[in-house]
Write a structure and sequence with these properties.
Length: about 290
């Protein structure tokens, strides 16, 4: 496949970062109205339905063989495990802190991509990720005293690892259309989340008020159909460790939105940590010089 122009790659990367920077906040608002994993189930089911309709309009055949297996694995880890841990964690962890914990994704992704033989373990990527982790630790410990127990933060960390594994498994399989990968993946994720919701004995009712419907619609259409399709396109054109640096820009956006729209408190050390995180982005992505694509 012909390499994508640099402007398209950076445009997709920036759009994903902007959308997902607000996603954590929208999840928190949605959790106020709908049981968390049931909300994730509805989001994924709607996204899968929309994408399957798009596939039918474009006359895309359903993936088969190794391609189908790659999409199923992507859905199981990126959505079926990632989303329940994320939504449950955000019941107690602020949206800004959740996004900050997610900024450890580049380090996890780089290590997994190396383990699976997809990419070498490049020192500059590790250096940038480690700088970002220092920023994460700064914010983490400044806010840890506000939580009564560590389990919600552990759920968020498990969520980030599941997302990393889903991305690497998608990259490792045959190249798939971003629409196809997410149509199948979201469907698989919805089924897995539904089982989670049953096991958690959540009330499974369709929301009837806009305060509950709005977040699900936004997360399904903008977050899943929009951002995840762009993300899957990036997986086809960029190295996964490079793409993963989206996760260290998102916390800065999420912290800002959390303060402005949800009145979440951000301390001085948290702001300092956000600055360290951005430094990690500059180092890891080598933003001071042109990037190969």
């Amino acid at each position: 496949m012909k390499p994508a122009p640099a402007a398209l790659g950076w445009g997709a990367w920036g759009t994903c970062a902007a959308i997902w920077g607000g996603t954590f906040l929208v999840i928190a608002f949605g959790n106020d109205q709908v049981p968390p994993v049931w909300g994730a189930t509805l989001r994924l089911a709607l996204a899968s339905l929309v994408l399957l309709v798009i596939m039918a309009i474009l006359r895309h055949p359903l993936p088969r063989g190794p391609a189908l297996l790659a999409a199923v694995r992507f859905g199981a880890f990126q959505f079926g495990l990632n989303f329940p841990f994320l939504y449950l964690g955000e019941m107690r962890v602020s949206s800004g802190l959740t996004a900050v914990i997610y900024s450890t994704v580049p380090l996890s992704t780089a290590i997994l991509a190396w383990i699976f033989g997809l990419e070498p373990l490049r020192p500059i990527r590790i250096a940038g990720a480690l700088i970002a982790v220092v920023g994460v630790a700064t914010i983490f410990f400044s806010q840890l005293k506000t939580l009564a127990e560590p389990w919600p933060m552990l759920f968020v960390l498990l969520s980030s690892w599941s997302a990393c594994l889903g991305t690497v498994l998608l990259k490792r399989g045959p190249r798939l259309s971003p629409i196809d990968a997410n149509a199948i993946g979201a469907g698989v994720g919805a089924a897995v989340c539904w089982v989670w919701s049953l096991l958690l004995r959540e009330p499974q009712q369709l929301p009837g008020e806009w305060a509950a419907i709005g977040p699900i619609l936004y997360l399904a259409i903008v977050g899943s159909v929009g951002a995840f399709v762009l993300f899957a396109w990036l997986v086809n054109h960029w190295e996964v460790s490079r793409i993963s640096y989206i996760s260290v820009v998102i916390p800065v956006i999420a912290l800002t939105l959390g303060v402005l729209l949800r009145k979440e408190q951000v301390s001085g050390p948290s702001l300092a940590g956000a600055g360290i995180v951005l430094t990690g982005v500059v180092v890891g992505l080598q933003l001071w010089k042109p990037q190969p694509h």
